[in-house]
Write a structure and sequence with these properties.
Elements: H1 11-17, H2 22-29, H3 33-47, E1 66-69, E2 74-79, H4 91-103, E3 107-110, H5 134-151, E4 156-160, H6 167-175, H7 187-190, E5 195-197, E6 199-202, E7 206-209, H8 218-226, E8 229-232, E9 239-245, E10 248-254, H9 264-267, E11 281-287, E12 290-291, E13 295-299, E14 304-307, E15 310-313
Parallel strand pairs: 1-6, 2-3, 3-4, 4-5, 7-8, 8-10
Antiparallel strand pairs: 2-11, 6-7, 9-10, 11-12, 11-13, 13-14, 14-15
Helix pairs in contact: 2-3
């Protein structure tokens, strides 16, 4: 809004600028992202139009069980547990976007629970808590993921499904299986630029998937049982565990969570319990096809992150 309470731009100007995405549009207009979403709705209602998040539609493919990447030299980012809600952008999400600009990764793997889908959880609501609709979550996801695509247009992109992501199609399949082939009920209909699957293998010796073993020793048990380096999320804890045996050296990695543990979507169901959670995402560097020691990007304070012994503003 302007100094006299008037919109910072006309509806026509807003529509023309919508292609830059809500996050950047909010920055451009000097308003909160929630205000951009609200105005978008008002314009859609007044004019009978739909302002879609910027994306490029491609035909949907069936989900494979496994995606396979071959990377000889370069960097791969693995980001898990974004739990995206409208109007939120965590420190780690800002850091991820910034490092996409600076490091130009060969690939980006979203390692599950990109969306939260609180309204279609099998768990009942707690009290009268307000949660976004699936459509609102999808739109927030489209906006942020389109930012990543624009920053790394040549990167490989994979989305390993998490238990929260699976809620979307599982809900529909459980109540209306007859709609299996109808467009719009699959995640890939809304996020066509990200290849979905349960896991992504890199060079056949590194496997990324949302979850495997649980508990405080999960990272060690994951690589022990897998027989290769395994990168997971789900537990939100962020750590790297080396394992050596007669087969050589490999790692179990928990890449933490991109979402901020203080976000409202976690407040009720964690019941104000102490949480061994940490915002983070993983940076995996390959040289001649071999993985170097895995690295984590982690918070320093509310506005800065730390990586490779230095502190940066997000």
């Amino acid at each position: 809004m302007g100094s006299q309470g008037k919109p910072a731009c006309s509806d026509d100007e807003f529509i023309a600028m919508w292609a830059m995405g809500p996050t950047k549009l909010a920055e451009h207009l000097g308003v909160k992202e929630n205000n951009v979403y609200a105005r978008r709705r008002r314009i859609e209602k007044r004019r009978g139009i739909q302002l879609d998040a910027p994306t490029r539609a491609i035909p949907r493919k069936e989900y494979p069980q496994r995606n396979q990447w071959d990377i000889k030299n370069g960097v791969v980012f693995v980001a898990s547990d974004l739990h995206l809600w409208p109007g939120q952008e965590s420190l780690m999400l800002r850091a991820l976007k910034k490092l996409c600009d600076e490091m130009r990764p060969k690939g980006i793997i979203l390692n599950g629970d990109v969306l939260d889908f609180a309204q279609i959880s099998r768990h009942p609501p707690i009290g009268w808590e307000k949660t976004p609709t699936p459509q609102q979550e999808i739109e927030a996801g489209q906006d942020h993921l389109s930012d990543l695509v624009k920053r790394t247009p040549r990167a490989l992109r994979s989305w390993n499904l998490g238990n929260h992501d699976a809620r979307f199609e599982s809900k529909i399949a459980s109540v209306a299986p007859q709609f299996a082939k109808v467009a719009g009920i699959h995640l890939s209909d809304h996020f066509p630029l990200w290849q979905k699957g349960w896991s992504t293998f890199i060079n056949d010796n590194v496997v990324t998937k949302h979850r495997f073993k649980g508990g405080m020793h999960a990272t060690q048990n994951n690589t022990l049982w897998a027989g290769r380096t395994m990168v997971t999320g789900h537990l939100h804890s962020a750590n790297v565990r080396q394992l050596t045996d007669y087969n050589g050296r490999r790692w179990g990695v928990d890449t933490g969570c991109v979402a901020d543990p203080d976000f409202v979507q976690f407040k009720n169901y964690t019941e104000d319990s102490p949480l061994n959670w940490c915002m983070a995402f993983g940076v995996f560097t390959f040289v001649n096809g071999e993985l170097l020691w895995p690295e984590l990007v982690t918070p320093f304070d509310d506005d800065h992150y730390q990586f490779r012994g230095k502190v940066y503003r997000a």
